[in-house]
């Protein structure tokens, strides 16, 4: 089993875990065969040569419907964008993207774009012109944030290697199956989540080596101090660090989370959504209940956002904050939630407070939650959290 964790400002922010027998397929590219098209759902099932077919689905407002894009029996090149679950196969895309150090290469596209995190207009224009010159026909590309300041030769060299490798893999056969394994877990964390200043910890010799190699490539010719914020420790060489990680994981599987003020939140992850309840607990405040509620809610907003990321919660998340009568205070809490999720790499939409005082979030699902990965359904209650009262079963007889 491989563990990778990301820390921000010295606090563990996210945890990834991958079992050897259940490695993530996100980023893998397959040559698949369309086995069923369902126009009513704007979706199609694609056989991948794996145990479960993948789901290809277009958005409701897409310009083209699924029946315009694929036909039953057709061979297609697809990329996994979301791992499957026990009930569902992996989610697929017809638009593969291949992440590199300075660029994301997109076979079959034509766009030449620059990361929005590069704000300098002159640098954005320079990078766009470089992409126009060096990206071959049949590929689109996006200059990544780390491309800022990179010279044209470096970008051209990377694009050339990636484009040739893609052509070889796609042209190497016609059988249904995997044609590109995609990045390892550690490499995905670096590509999609790490920014200089964050600390990344990895266990397992294979992923630790991949992490070290990827970091060496990305910092070559750049600010080498970035490497200092990545800690690479195999589990058997860092027993103390690994023990702390496991402790955080165990805490993330508990439903109740204590707040420093004496309040607490309760996290309940169920099939349709995640419900989070905020309570004052032992925190009595000093003046009015409204101030006590506001203080607890603001603290809970920070911890709630951390728990959502740490537990890899996604989909619909409903938070029952402590009731407040002042609309201004409600907005303060909502703004605090928005601020806390600003650092989250997963796209999160924050709604408004409902008439019943509930706040709803929708966080993009990219991987199973820690609970889904590390727990099994209880044999006694079958996942309900309760069993029949024995006295009731006996009719109340002593």
Helices and strands in order:
Layout: E1 2-8, E2 11-18, E3 29-38, E4 43-47, E5 54-57, H1 66-69, E6 75-82, E7 91-93, E8 98-99, E9 103-107, E10 112-114, H2 121-134, E11 139-143, H3 152-170, E12 177-180, H4 185-192, E13 199-202, H5 205-219, E14 230-232, H6 239-252, E15 256-258, E16 264-269, E17 274-279, H7 289-310, E18 315-320, H8 327-340, E19 348-353, E20 358-363, H9 370-374, H10 390-393
Helix pairs in contact: 2-3, 4-5, 7-8
The shape, in one word, is globular
Low-confidence stretches: 221-228
Roughly how many Å apart are the termini? 49 Å
Radius of gyration: 24 Å
Helix and strand composition category: alpha+beta
Averaged pLDDT: 83
Short account of what is shown:
Helices cover 30% and strands 26% of the residues. With 398 residues, the protein is α+β, with helices and mostly antiparallel strands. Strands 15-16-17-18-20-19 form a six-stranded mixed beta sheet, covered by helices on one side. The protein has a five-stranded mixed β-barrel with strand order 3-4-5-7-6. The protein has a four-stranded mixed beta sheet with strand order 2-1-13-14, sandwiched between helices.
Descriptive report:
The protein is an alpha+beta fold and 398 residues long. The chain folds into four domains: 2-22 and 183-250, no CATH class; 29-93, Nucleic acid-binding proteins (OB fold (Dihydrolipoamide Acetyltransferase, E2P), Beta Barrel), CATH 2.40.50.140; 98-176, no CATH class; 254-374, no CATH class. 30% of the residues lie in helices and 26% in strands. It is built from ten helices and 20 strands. The strands form four sheets. It has a six-stranded mixed sheet, with helices on one face. It has a five-stranded mixed β-barrel with strand order 3-4-5-7-6. It is globular, with a radius of gyration of 24 Å.
